[in-house]
Amino acid sequence: MAIIEVDGLTKRYGGRTALDGVSFSVEEGEIFGILGPNGAGKTTAVECLEGLRRPDAGTVRVLGLDPQADARELHQRIGVQLQRTGLPGSIRVREALELYTSFYASPRDPAELLAQWGLEERRNTRVRSLSGGQAQRLYIALALVGAPRVAFLDELTTGLDPQARRATWDLIRRIRDDGVTVVLISHFMDEAEELCDRLAVFDAGRVVATGSPGGLIEEATGGGGRMRFRPAGELDLALLAGVPGVTDVRRSGRHVVVTGRGDFATAVTSVLARNHIVVADLRIDQRTLDDAYLALTGGPSPRD
Ligand SMILES: Nc1ncnc2c1ncn2[C@@H]1O[C@H](COP(=O)(O)OP(=O)(O)OP(=O)(O)O)[C@@H](O)[C@H]1O
């Protein structure tokens, strides 16, 4: 069931068109990514969903509600992640959570959120003294205080080290597993590929593609990739040329390089195994969301 429906959404700032007839839908229970280069309209679109901006044209429904006409009801049912600068640095973790509970008719218990998000030991710490990862967990916890059915999370892992990023990904999956639909704005292709069930790629105020990461990779690049290995004994290249999905086979010194589409690598591996050909130095470079993004927007991914 679609929990968010956007149809023909258009938004102008003066003479500048920020969104030009954007349509997409988000299914209940998924992690939905909104991707695109700077200025593509991602924030504007999410602000229209949150009821913070009034569309010039088109319709938006979140949980069946009109974010403009039903703003009060909607705000009780969605969670919006605060930007880093949104809290005074002197407020303590527990106080911030308690303050947020006052915004909702049926809030969650702050003590339970502290425990769930590993912030119990930091309950009396001032926000300004939290580490990047702890602050991130607090911002997520604050977005969940109202027990929302949809959570909007923006640029979650910017500035976090690789370990904290991975920990944050696990937390986002936990939110989804608890039954909350997650809308995630991200600049990171690896993050979107890893986390999102589906995503929409924005470019210059339009949606240029929607689908699962795997589906978009397949659609935009043909999928597949390249595998390179060194056969231990004799290998007749004709054996691999006929494997489904393989588009090219060639030698490169002592190595063999196979290019293909879709799941060609699995097919090649099983042909090699069936013919008892042992390989060394095996390397497989699959196409990634980065490649799809490049093909869709005509530019490198934003953080390259
Ligand atoms: N308040 C505003 N007034 C005028 N123009 C705006 C305003 N907010 C955004 N814009 C313009 O609208 C376009 C879309 O901006 P938006 O912030 O939605 O893009 P974005 O994809 O979120 O970008 P970023 O990744 O940089 O956050 C941009 O050209 C931007 O300059």
Give an overview of the whole structure.
This protein is α/β, with parallel strands linked by helices and 304 residues long. It folds into 2 domains: 2-218, Rossmann fold, CATH 3.40.50.300; 224-286, 2-Layer Sandwich (Alpha-Beta Plaits), CATH 3.30.70. It is 33% helix and 29% strand. It has a 6-stranded mixed β-sheet with strand order 5-6-7-3-8-9, with helices on both faces. Strands 11-12-10-13 form a 4-stranded antiparallel β-sheet. It has a 3-stranded antiparallel β-sheet with strand order 2-1-4, covered by helices on one side. Residues 13, 16, 18, 36, 38-44 line the site of adenosine-5'-triphosphate (ATP). GO terms for molecular function: ATP binding; ATP hydrolysis activity.
Strand-helix topology:
Layout: E1 2-13, E2 16-27, E3 31-35, H1 42-49, E4 57-62, H2 71-77, E5 78-80, H3 93-101, H4 110-116, H5 132-143, E6 150-154, H6 162-177, E7 181-186, H7 189-195, E8 198-203, E9 206-211, H8 213-221, E10 225-231, H9 238-241, E11 246-252, E12 255-260, H10 264-274, E13 279-286, H11 289-297
Helix pairs in contact: 3-4, 5-6, 8-11
The structure holds adenosine-5'-triphosphate.
